Amino acid sequence: MPQSTWDAGRHDGGPGRFRPSPAFALVAPVVASVLVQVPGTIVVLAWLRPAPLLALAQLVLALAGPLALLAARRAPGATVAVVTALALADLLLPPAEGPPYVALAFAIVLAVARGAIGWAVASVAVGWTAAIVVGSLLGATWNPLRVAGTTAVLVACFAFGSAVRVRRERLAAYRAETARRRRTAEEQERIRIARELHDVIGHALSQINVQASVGLHLMDRDPDRARTALESVKATSKTALEEVRSVLGVIRSDGEAPLAPQAELAELPRLAAGFRAPGFDVEVVDRLGEAPGRAVQFAAYRIAQEALVNVVRHAGAGRAVVAVESLDGDLLVTVDDDGTGIDGADEGSGILGMRERAALLGGTVEFERSPLGGARVTARLPWGAAA
Length: 387
Description:
This protein is α+β, with helices and mostly antiparallel strands and 387 residues long.
């Protein structure tokens, strides 16, 4: 069942915060003012029995002030001015006895809370001065304690309204910051998904291209090796489809679907085998005694994968060497080739993705000239880093 617009309030703005619903915040001051002013006025009029016109005027004033509060949301400044005038008339119109004009207190608080401080100060200052001056001219006698008490109440209303305004501003700032963080998190998640898809699809297409070229080259001369190349194309495309489905499954389920098992460094030989082709060889050098955490292994695998994709696409190399080792508490991954090299400043060749993966774990990726004559990609990842 949907929540009614007349509910007393709702939780909003984080744990422990409670904000009244808009309808309740609008109607509550009106109801409270009516309950104080109208019955109290009726009791006083029944007791004093003034002239019928004066009695009617008092009842109208007692009801008009609370009803004027209905406009406080759209016109808080004008509302506090009107309610002040009504309160002044109620104060000066006989009989002098009567309930407090609480609608004025609500009008002041609402005006200050909504930013109409100038209206509130001007209206109350003019109204209170007029009450004292005009009342004196009409022969009213003002008790100094009453004047001081009323002034203190008016000041308290301004202070309370200011406190409400500060709270509203803080709540608005909190919501804006929450929305900004949500947008940032969503943007980071989109980048992460795009990076995963880029790595999966780019790697698969590169391997398919290599193996398809091998199959075409050997189809007539060596049908068995051509068949093996085509089987590799089939296996690579199947694996890529599974990984893409895994990433898309996370999107469809708002990130709650389990991911496929992440690649580990132990799978580097299989990765290298997928890139091997006539005229191009990939060697894996494993100097690790033990493996780091899964997050570090996965990042290292993807960086090596992307580096090999770049070698196949851009380097024109005949050989590549992937080496992994431990150095000063870090995992060191180097990929060397004997090709033409790659431009480390070219952020469009998967290099940005490699650097982002390393940065997420507190690591780095550097590019330099390789001893083999081509390019060297060096990734340094903290051994104990977590995702």
